[in-house]
Amino acid sequence: MSAPTANSGTVRFGCFEADLRSGELRKGGIKVKLEGQPFQVLAVLLERPGGLVTREELQKELWPDETFVDFEQGINAAVKRLRVALEDSADKPHFIETLPRRGYRFIGRIENGAHPVSAAIEENRLWPTLATAEPLSKDTFPTEAEIPRKTSARRRLVLIGLPAIATFFLLVFGLNLGSSRDRLLGRPAEGEITSIAVLPLENLTGDPEQQYFVDGMTDALITELGKISALRVISRTSAMAFKDSKKPLPEIARQLGVDAVLEGAVARNGDRVRITARVMHLSQERTLWAESYERDLHEISALQSEIVLVVADEIRVKLLNQEQARLARVRPVNPRAYEEFLRGRYLQAKMNPDDMRKALVYFQHALEIDPNYAPAYIGIVDAYTIGGGFQLGVSLKEGVAKMKEAAYKAVELDDATAAAHYALAKVKYYEWDLPGAEKEFQRALELNPSDAQVRRHYGHFLIALRRHADSIREMQHASVLDPLSPLLATEVGWTYYYARQYPQAIKQSRKALEMESDFKYAQLLLGESYWLQGQFEEALRSGWPGPYQPDGNRRAKEIYERKGAQAVMRWLVEDQERQMAKGPLAARDLNHLAASYSELGDKERALALLERAYQEHDPWLPMDMAAPRFDPLRSDPRFQDLLRRIGLPLAPRFMAGS
After folding, report:
1. Nearest residue to 353 (alpha-carbon basis) of 327, 384, 392, 382
2. What's the rounded Cα separation, in Å, for the pair 42 and 35?
3. N or C: which end of the chain has fewer CB within 10 A?
4. Does residue 29 surpass a pLDDT of 50?
5. For the residues of 44-68, what is the DSSP string, one character each?
6. What share of residues in the chain are helix, strand, coil (percent, to 5)?
């Protein structure tokens, strides 16, 4: 048997087939979710069936030389995801065998001529009539005397039935009737809906002051649809860009990258609410469903769930049992508490300190009305998250304490809500409980896979752990869910920056600036990436050291022309020291000053400042310590000790970008 090659197309083993050209894995003709590095590992192993593939060889295949990642952890994660997809076990492998401290070997039998569908039929994995048949009893099995007669009868049945079966497959599979061929090949049928956007609902209340209520209905539908793992739901930020838009729906769908949109309107009379909605299939340019619902306000949760369940049924998206149960689970709502909460959320979305303070008051009012209203506790956590409480006039320590109290209460009241676990994840992250934070992030994403904000914050968390490939993946996923957000486009760039992949960071910053030409966060990333790449003139032309220092670029240019890059860094440090002399620096400013000293080669001052940030328990310290500017410190035992005390992975001394 000759070994398959990357150019040989499809490789079949067991009930699986791997298409090495398209990068797809199928089981019994049904596509299995496996992409990126785990599939690359499979492809490399299939190139040499039965032979050892060392971890070093996998490292070279999966990451280019200039990539800075934790290779050991990355390979382990890729192999683990591959085994999950193949339903394999490290202890009793059928396909992937581990050779300790050496590498891996593919031990499955490759069947070059096998048809993938036949293997699935043999295992009763393709046709429901086989898989759900009643189990055989011992009386069902033939006796020795019966075997020849039954075998002969079976042979006659096969000979008679083959022409009919062939005709059936020609009509159903060959002509793709009912999209059968698409389903068998594991690809979406033409017209299948896998993504949707909820456009801002129209305010038909007759009162502009009720906009907070209408926007709250839009948010709720986005959140409820986001619970469906088979559906990609566009985030609120990108959807709200089309509020009052006159653009045609196909153009909106193209910009958002979705198959369908849900649009509608909200009317209200006292505590009586009417929602009219319809779902448009954009490629087919037709209405799939339209309906009007009316309920009392205390039944609003049931109304929202009902709409989502009907939409899921109409667009024929598959719901997992637990998703069905979560969507069907509703609680009565106190109308007054609900209104106070919606007013708070409406103000909170404006993201400025004054409105954030007002939002907090509304959340507290909601809890005075109903002390067991979980969403209000979640709103409190979000309010204190912005600036760690600084913008609300409290200290960092006090802000985190208030977040913690509210987050635990939210989870206690509603353990099945993604937002509650996200709130607790942020608290644990700020407290440097990194294993606990990851558990809560993952639980939140399990409950709502389409929450772009959770994925974004989880991406930040993974930067702190130096799991750069995972961080990039999460940020990219978040950006797909929020495609019109310059913030998310920039965040993808920052993950590349932390991974020391500066050309990709520059590309992403330019993408964000195409969305919003004066977006300061992207301008900062662009200059930083050029500077650390050694392109000092390009960095200065792009505005470095950034838009947050109005006169900084002019002064930096003057110093650079006379004395060079090191002199510029010394001037920046001196300027930061002058700011420090005017009053105590915020904890994160200590980190930035420490990073500047590190780049200048002054390890003593850099480490002293980091120690101060540690003593003040700066929530951002774990992530900041992964920054490239701290690379000169990574081999220092004191830096390693600080990582250990925080609970972060120790930096390999031989790898500057770890």
Report:
1. 392
2. 10
3. N
4. yes
5. HHHHSTTSEEEHHHHHHHHS-TT--
6. 60, 10, 30
**Measured between alpha carbons, how far is 615 from 609 in angstroms, rounded to an integer?**
10
* Tens of pLDDT, residues 506-529: 999 999 999 999 999 999 999 999
Task: Say how far apart CA 356 and CA 344 lie, in whole Å.
Answer: 8
The two domains 10-116 and 195-333 share their CATH topology (first three levels equal): no
pLDDT in tens, 415-455: 999 999 999 999 999 999 999 999 999 999 999 999 999 99
What does pTM read for this prediction?
0.71
Question: Residue 26 belongs to what H/E stretch?
Answer: strand 24-27
CB 299 within 8 A of CB 275: no
Q: For domain 195-333, give the CATH number.
A: 3.40.50.10070
CB 626 within 8 A of CB 657: no
Could you tell me which of 257, 13, 28 has the C-alpha nearest to residue 123?
28
Question: 582: Cβ–Cβ under 8 A, 6 or more apart, which residues?
Answer: none
Where do the domains of the chain lie? 10-116, 195-333
* CB of 385 closer than 8 Å to CB of 426: yes
Fold (CATH) for 10-116: Arc Repressor Mutant, subunit A (1.10.10)
| pLDDT of amino acid 84 | 84
Distance CA 627, CA 153 (A): 73
- Which H or E run contains 235? none
List pLDDT tens digits, range 553-563: 999 999 999 99
Peptide bond into 116 cis (omega under 30): no
The DSSP secondary-structure symbol of 297 reads G
Name the DSSP class of 100.
T
Rounded distance between C-alpha atoms, residue 616 and residue 219, angstroms: 37
